[in-house]
Amino acid sequence: MSRMIDEALETMRGLHEIGAVNKQTLRDFETQCLPPPAYTAETIKRLRESLHVSQAVFAAYINASISTVQKWENGEKKPSGAATRLLSVIERKGCCRRSKSA
C-alpha cells in the first residue's frame, strides 16, 4: 500500500510541475495521503474536555453513540480511520457551536 501511495504522490507532483494540477490540489492530495494520527484514550478525553462538552454532546458532534465515546475514552476501542480523521479536524478547527443570540 505504501508503494502505491508513494507512486500516486510522485505522479501528482509531476502533474503539478507541468501545470496540470494546481498547488492547492496537490496540497489537498498530499494531506489525504498522510496516515491519520493515532488517538489514545487520554488524548480523546482531553480533546473532549478542551471543548467543555459532555460525552453525550461530543458523541452528537461526531455522530457517534455515547457508548462509542465511552469505549474510546476507556481504551476499550480505538476510533476507525474515518473517525480518526474527524477527530483530527475537530482538534485543529474545533466544533461548531450555536450562537448565544436568539
From TrEMBL:
InterPro entries: Cro/C1-type_HTH, HTH-type_reg/antitoxin, Lambda_DNA-bd_dom_sf. Keywords: DNA-binding, Transcription, Transcription regulation. Gene3D superfamilies: lambda repressor-like DNA-binding domains (1.10.260.40). One of its GO terms (molecular function) is DNA binding. Residues 44-80 form the HTH cro/C1-type domain. Signal peptide: none annotated. It holds the Pfam family HTH_3. This is Putative transcriptional regulator. The keyword Ribonucleoprotein does not apply. PANTHER family: ANTITOXIN HIGA-2, MERR FAMILY BACTERIAL REGULATORY PROTEIN.
